[in-house]
């Protein structure tokens, strides 16, 4: 099967529970055999985004559409630059600043390049989900304290933490973030499905 076909949604799937189970299975197959997080997160964001566009029963490409799907990751995970910029500056310190989440692979319009997660300065849904280590579902973003508006058309949002478990330790990696054009675009079924997607992505990669 061509890779692009993995995002197709059969017409027999009508409920969100069925949809997320289908996406999880398709994504698991797509990521099989690849462990690099950049590659896998790129395919994951594309597949989830494209599958949601194809799922016209609840999302599609109209007023209920998901307009952004992607990842923000702790900057310490990004590779150290091997070459200096053209101006000769050394940007290693910025790349290794663990008080930021940096924009990772995504689908949608251009987004905020980084999100501050340092104590006293952190704000927004992504920062809160990361620091609180829990999924945050926001029915109406304009009412959320400290919301960061990357796209003024966004009306609702859901953010799932990416947590790597090593023995009895939990290591925060970043977040999976989705925006929707509709108020109350996401529900508990989406929360449950996306948390499984987030867990799959974490387990499928070498960090």
TrEMBL record:
Kindly list the GO molecular function terms attached to this UniProt entry.
Answer: L-methionine-(R)-S-oxide reductase activity
- Which InterPro entries has this protein been placed in? GAF-like_dom_sf, Phosphatase_reg/MetRdx
- Entry superkingdom: Eukaryota
One GO CC term on file: cytosol
Q: Which residues form the signal peptide?
A: none
Report what the protein is called: GAF domain-containing protein
UniProt source species: Serpula lacrymans var. lacrymans (strain S7.9) (Dry rot fungus)
């Amino acid at each position: 099967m061509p890779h692009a076909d993995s995002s197709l949604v059969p017409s027999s799937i009508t409920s969100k529970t069925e949809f997320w189970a289908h996406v999880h299975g398709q994504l698991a197959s797509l990521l099989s055999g690849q462990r690099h997080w950049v590659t896998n997160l790129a395919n994951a964001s594309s597949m989830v985004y494209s599958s949601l566009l194809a799922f016209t029963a609840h999302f599609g490409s109209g007023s209920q559409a998901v307009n952004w799907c992607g990842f923000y990751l702790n900057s310490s995970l990004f590779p150290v630059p091997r070459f200096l910029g053209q101006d000769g500056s050394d940007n290693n310190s910025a790349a290794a600043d663990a008080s930021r989440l940096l924009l990772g692979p995504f689908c949608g319009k251009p987004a905020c390049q980084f999100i501050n997660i340092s104590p006293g300065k952190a704000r927004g849904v992504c920062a809160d989900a990361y620091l609180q280590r829990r999924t945050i579902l926001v029915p109406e973003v304009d009412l959320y304290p400290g919301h960061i508006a990357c796209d003024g058309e966004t009306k609702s949002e859901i953010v799932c933490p990416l947590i790597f478990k090593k023995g009895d330790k939990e290591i925060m990696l970043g977040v999976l973030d989705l925006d929707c054009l509709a108020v109350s675009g996401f529900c508990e079924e989406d929360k449950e499905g996306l948390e499984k997607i987030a867990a799959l992505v974490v387990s499928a990669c070498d960090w």
